[in-house]
Amino acid sequence: MEFKYFSKNGEVLRIEQAAMPLSNIEYQYGFGVYESVRRANGIVYFLKDHLERLMESARIIGLEHSFSSQSIDSYISELVLKNGAGTCNIKILLVGGRTVADASLFILCLNPLFPDKKLYRDGVALITYPYERAFPHAKTLNMLESFLAYRRAQARGAYDALLISGRGYVTEGTRTNFFCIGGRTIFTPRESDILPGVTRKVVLQVAGAAGFAVEEKDIRPRDLPLYDGAFITSTSSKILPVHAIDDHAYGAAPAPLRELMGAFDRLLASYRGAVKGG
Q: Which of 1, 54, 71, 149 has a Cα-to-Cα distance from 82 of 20 to 30 A?
């Protein structure tokens, strides 16, 4: 679908008016934060959580602005209505300026890129890549190293790259959160070391309600073969099983992981508002 409008600072404009001055040094240097939100079936999923993280990301990097979660919510509603958008991803870009008044907010509707359905059956391949983001809890526009890691993954036919910290631990993907599973226990890298994904948060809530145990721990690449399986999560991919990481291949996704995937899909199908605790 072609989306003809975007929103700038709450004003809906035609997409051909979208521009960023070449002199904007804040944009050049990645002094900004962003969110990608899923909209389907007339519902914007987990918007409250996404906006809370946007505000927290801005706070972490010292990006001062005058926008509120409530105002951004209303801007999104206006833009979706103007575009006549059905299923789409909503991208929110908050770019800093020299003063509070100079900060800019851009909202765009984008066609989502969903994974091939066979990947939910067969799983995805990942590679590992040594890189540690400077501000793990902030979703910033400083994405060069993540882009290079993702490009290397693509060149090797992989779905994403798993980032390895300076201490030698698995943290997250370039655009995904990562988990291992053993029996009915889900193992996740320590939250202090990663971007706390909105989908990750909801998946862990679903897992707890379904009787899974969850354990935060340091996961070394050499220990990955010790687990029954692994999976990744993101706004667009939901839960994707992993069939290989570098040279290690897992078997078919274990039954508990399939159970979790089904439970999460059922939550999305029934979702009408905030998740408890979200």
A: 54
- Where in the chain are the domains? 5-110, 117-270
User: What per-residue confidence (pLDDT) applies to 168?
Assistant: 97
Q: Residue 16 carries which DSSP code? A: G
Q: Give residue 223's pLDDT.
A: 97
Integer angstrom CA distances of residue 239 from 117, 118, 186, 258: 12, 13, 13, 10
Tokens of 272: 């009408």
Using alpha carbons, list the distances in angstroms from residue 173 to 28, 149, 196. 24, 9, 12
From residue 259, how far is each of 210, 211, 255, 277 by CA, in Å?
Answer: 9, 11, 6, 22
Chain centroid, CA 187 distance in Å: 19
Tell me phi and psi for residue 184, to 5 degrees: -110, 30
State whether CATH 3.30.470.10 applies to domain 5-110: yes
Tokens for 94?
């908050």
Neighbours of 94 (CB within 10 A): 22
| Secondary structure class of 17 (helix, strand, coil) | helix
CB 136 within 8 A of CB 59: no
Fold of 117-270: D-amino Acid Aminotransferase; Chain A, domain 2 (3.20.10)
